[in-house]
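Exercise 7b. Backbone tokens:
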């Protein structure tokens, strides 16, 4: 017995077990060792300190003989519940080793889109956090269920029509869930209203967001960053992602830094106390301190510190106010610019279907929204799209639980049984969303045969060209050869998409890493993409059947 095995046997002897219990010899492929273990003991590798899957077996003598036999033959065991390191190319394994990422933290799946079985399947059915790769599920479902031409409508209504340009009463804005009602598009809506002859509103602005039913949760709940636009909660009437762009324009050293907001929201007060300094421009944000006092109805933003003159104009985005307050502020500012007036404030309410429609704005088609969601990994747009699956204009608003039910029914209708799917908001900005590498690959293969295939694939970032893959693998053989969706959270790094091999074949590729060192896994992911691209004639022998087991 080796010293390591003896140490493990000594350790396991401390576990509570009846004297009559026969010790099981356990094979830990991922950790590369055999150990003795009583059946009621959990296993943690003594050196790496990582959890390893264990499978109990029969007599120690038989396993000693089997281990020697397999070592002599140079064969790999296909062991249910255990990852096989030789399923991954050597270049990928080496990159994982350099990043100190164990195989048990990886889910990988590679299959030609026209083939019946995969060529790589590592922990294939293990549910893992996919981060923004979950957007593939949401966008594919939306393209099929809503249709590529689908649009969202925002309408302005009143109980009675204006008389001589004056509305003697409240004005209603009814949101239709538009995920990209930017300040420019909102201006187009108001210009249409102004062009219809309205100039004076003698009442309040009523914000109707009933198209969605969203829980009133804390915007900072996910990661404690309430000012970050990616944390903005969905809303039936969301304007400009509820975000203000601040431009910082430095003067000569010693001079002030001009801070310009866009849009100008009357309820937001800016207190700039910034000075330009000499020196090179590195991380220009490092010297700027930001304080936001936000009551929901009004906010005060204080900027202090310094910024190098050499940086030139720079921009930063902050999310403030409640959705209705932001809508009112954006409306009032633009309405006044267009020469209109409004005497009242705002409140939340619902427009009667019988009200007069004074103006409306239809969004760009769904295909454009899907492209923004996948190319640039826009979380709030993805959440809007997910809620839209169950939204009923004039009826019950979109809800996350109803959208989840509709999405699962769609998967079943397509014979895509995904028992490992756990979906919360459809964006991947979640700690509880889960799906396996195999399930994402199956979804990709299904989408490849769908009528919405061109719109779906075209929405994914093109390696080294655009989106979240724009700066990755540049001047590499992979440049322009794959459409890959990326995902990232703390302890999570994922990719999934399509790779065009050098021989012309196309493969669905999924690579998940859930580990404390996940941020260091990009080189391993890139190595897998290169390996697939090089083509079948340069790869190791193709496996003839899919692995039936999975690590759990």
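Sequence design result:
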């Amino acid at each position: 017995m080796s010293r390591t095995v003896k140490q493990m046997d000594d350790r396991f002897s401390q576990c509570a077990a009846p004297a009559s219990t026969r010790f099981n010899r356990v094979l830990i492929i991922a950790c590369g060792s055999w150990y003795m273990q009583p059946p009621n003991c959990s296993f943690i590798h003594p050196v790496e300190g990582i959890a390893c899957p264990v499978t109990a077996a029969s007599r120690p003598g038989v396993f000693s003989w089997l281990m020697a036999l397999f070592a002599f033959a140079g064969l790999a065991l296909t062991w249910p519940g255990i990852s096989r390191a030789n399923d991954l190319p050597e270049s990928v394994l080496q990159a994982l080793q350099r990043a100190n990422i164990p195989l048990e933290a990886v889910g990988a799946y590679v299959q030609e889109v026209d083939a019946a079985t995969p060529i790589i399947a590592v922990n294939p059915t293990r549910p893992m956090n996919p981060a923004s790769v979950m957007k593939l599920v949401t966008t594919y479902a939306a393209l099929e269920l809503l249709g590529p031409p689908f649009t969202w409508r925002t309408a302005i209504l009143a109980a009675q029509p204006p008389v001589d340009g004056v509305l003697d009463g409240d004005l209603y804005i009814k949101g239709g869930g538009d995920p990209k009602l930017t300040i420019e598009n909102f201006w187009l809506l108001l210009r249409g209203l102004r062009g219809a002859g309205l100039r004076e509103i003698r009442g309040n602005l009523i914000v109707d967001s009933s198209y969605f039913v969203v829980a009133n949760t804390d915007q900072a709940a996910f990661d404690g960053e309430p000012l970050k636009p990616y944390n903005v909660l969905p809303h039936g009437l969301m304007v400009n992602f509820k975000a203000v762009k601040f431009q910082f324009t430095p003067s000569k050293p010693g001079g002030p830094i001009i801070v310009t907001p866009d849009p100008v929201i009357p309820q937001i007060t800016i207190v700039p106390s910034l000075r330009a300094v000499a020196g090179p421009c590195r991380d220009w944000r490092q010297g700027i301190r930001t304080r936001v006092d936000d009551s929901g109805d009004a906010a005060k933003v204080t900027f202090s510190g310094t910024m190098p003159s050499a940086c030139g104009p720079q921009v930063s985005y902050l999310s403030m106010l409640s959705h209705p307050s932001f809508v009112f502020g954006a409306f009032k500012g633009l309405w006044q610019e267009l020469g209109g007036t409004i005497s009242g404030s705002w409140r939340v309410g619902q427009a009667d279907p019988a009200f007069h429609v004074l103006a409306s704005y239809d969004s760009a088609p769904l295909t454009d929204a899907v492209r923004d969601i996948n190319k640039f990994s826009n979380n709030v747009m993805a959440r809007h799209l997910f809620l839209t699956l169950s939204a009923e204009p004039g009826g019950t608003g979109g809800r996350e639980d109803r959208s989840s039910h509709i999405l699962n029914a769609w998967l079943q209708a397509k014979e895509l049984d995904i028992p490992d799917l756990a979906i919360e908001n459809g964006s991947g900005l979640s700690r509880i969303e889960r799906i396996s590498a195999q399930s994402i690959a199956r979804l990709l293969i299904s989408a490849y045969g769908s009528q919405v295939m061109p719109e779906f694939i075209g929405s994914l970032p093109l390696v080294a060209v655009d989106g979240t893959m724009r700066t990755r693998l540049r001047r590499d053989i992979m440049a322009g050869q794959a459409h890959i969706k990326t995902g990232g959270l703390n302890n999570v790094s994922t990719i999934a998409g399509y790779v065009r091999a050098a021989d012309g074949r196309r493969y669905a590729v999924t690579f998940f890493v859930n580990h404390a060192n996940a941020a260091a896994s990009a080189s391993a992911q890139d190595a897998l993409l290169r390996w697939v691209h090089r083509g079948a004639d340069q790869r190791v022998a193709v496996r003839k059947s899919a692995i039936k087991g999975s690590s759990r």
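Instructor comment: The first helix runs from residue 3 to 12. The longest strand covers residues 268-277.
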